[in-house]
Amino acid sequence: MTAPVLVRCSLPAPPERVYDLFTRADQLVLWFCEDAESDLRPGGEIHAGWIDEDGEAWTRSGRWTELDPPFCASLEWFGAGDEVETFRFAIAPHEEGCTISIMSPGLPPREAVPTDVLLDAVRQGWEHTLEALAGLLRSERP
Predict the structure, then answer these.
(1) What is the pLDDT of residues 67-93, one digit of tens each?
(2) Sign, Cα dihedral of 7, 9, 140, 74
(3) Kind and range of the H or E element at 49?
(4) What pLDDT does 71 receive?
(5) Positions of the chain with pLDDT under 70
(6) Which residues contact 27 (CB under 8 A, 6 or more apart)?
(7) Which CATH number is 80's domain given?
(8) Using only C-alpha atoms, what is the Rg of the chain?
């Protein structure tokens, strides 16, 4: 695995709303995945499902390792074999909403791809995802 990636984004919503969007199944399906289950307790399972560009379904499963609403949470996603990826997010309030910081694992090293390119791909993926989330939150504002 390459080094973890830290991504920060200011969002136009209070910490409680953003925390729910990252942890509750009914909220995850609004912006992150097509299908979700989330047992919100330490050790509780989380499942997310997507449909890719080719129409193929794929899923990820994991477990919550830390829940401190509405300020932070950690989870482990299970990969192929014994691979476990730990994600952590922290939310800090500010006058116009909050800032979310996401610590995401990098990608596995690839012989033909420089590490900085892999890290940039993870960062760009999160930035694109968080832009979509910010758009959803802006549309919810009265």
Answers:
(1) 999 999 999 999 766 788 899 999 999
(2) positive
(3) strand 45-51
(4) 97
(5) 1-2, 80-81, 106-110, 112
(6) 20, 21
(7) 3.30.530.20
(8) 15
Q: Is 81 exposed, middle or buried (0-12, 13-18, 19+ CB in 10 A)?
A: exposed
Q: What is the pTM of this model?
A: 0.88
DSSP string, 78-139: E-STT-EEEEEEEEEEETTEEEEEEEE--PPPBTTB-HHHHHHHHHHHHHHHHHHHHHHHHH
Number of domains the chain is built from = 1
**Tokens in use for 73?**
């949470």
| Parent domain of 107 | 5-140
